[in-house]
Each structure stands twice: as structure tokens, then as C-alpha cells.
Design goal:
Elements: H1 13-29, H2 35-38, E1 49-51, E2 57-59, H3 76-95, H4 111-129, H5 134-138, H6 155-183
Antiparallel strand pairs: 1-2
Helix pairs in contact: 1-4, 1-6, 3-4, 3-6
Amino acid sequence: MIADYPDVPPRLAPFLASWDYMSEQLFGRLEGLSDEELVWEPAAKVLTVRRRPDGSTGTDAHGLPPDASVQPPRTLAWSIDHLGAGTLVRADWLVGSHALDDDDVTWPVTADEAIDLLRRGLSAWRDGLAKMTDADLDTVGRSAYPHGLDPQLPLLDIVWWVHKELLEHAAEIWYVRDLYAASR
């Protein structure tokens, strides 16, 4: 595995290998996603993305508490957009302008746009990580995203957290797609 990623620190290679594999699996699993399925609500109360009367879109919540508290189920729109927007913003704070904020990213309500946001976010984060050195991984605050623990933790801890987000939300996405198919 490390041999497949010769230009990155060896302790980053497993994260990139897993990231690449999970991203490929996730995009394969999203093939055929419809707009109707994207916003399907699997329960009476959900976290989702909604079109507002003025044509803009908005979400019920950008994120969730970092604990095991019970939350309402998420629509595919929420999970896909959260993962795409979150990685896009974090990538900006890792290797970009350090200016992109959560509210700067539009959360789409169409399948094609949501998948595009997800692809852009996952790619931006992954491409930014590929530029990191061992010293970067140990640097506290290297990913300076101000709305999390990024300024207080070494980058490797943030890499772990964002990787957890990919695994967690990919699992949600797969499960909700299964529920949607079963409900039909």
C-alpha cells in the first residue's frame, strides 16, 4: 500500500488508500440517483436540504454534535451535501484561500448537482492531503478551519476526523438508498 503512494508520508498512505477506495465505492453506489430519491424523507422528522420560496436552498443543520446523541435520520441530500460541503471548506482551509465558510457553499437539491459537490469536495480534500509532509501532519493548527478543533490539534488528528466523516456518511448514504429501494 505504501508503495502505491510514494510521494506522501508513510503514515498518510493508509488514509489516502482508504479514501480513494471508499470514494470510488461511494460514487459507484450513487449511480442512478434521482432527484426524488435525493430528497426522500425516511421518517416524519429528518435533517434535509430544502428549496426556499426565493429559489435558494437551505439545510436544517450544517453538522451534528460530535457525540453519540440521538439525531433525526438524514436524507441523502443532507448526507451527500454535508460531506461535499464539509470537505470542500476544509480543503480551502488546508491549502486554499482560508476564506471559504460553511455558508458560502450552496447545498444542492438535485442529484447531479449534489454528486458534483461531493466529487469536488472529496477531490479537493484528497488533493490537499497529497501535498502534506510529515512536518505538516504534526503541525497543530495546520488545517486552520476555524469552526472545529483544527486550530488546536495536529493535522493528523484532523485527517483522522475527516476520514471518519467519509466512512460514516458513506454508510448512511448506502443505507438510505437501501431503504428507499425497499420502500418502492
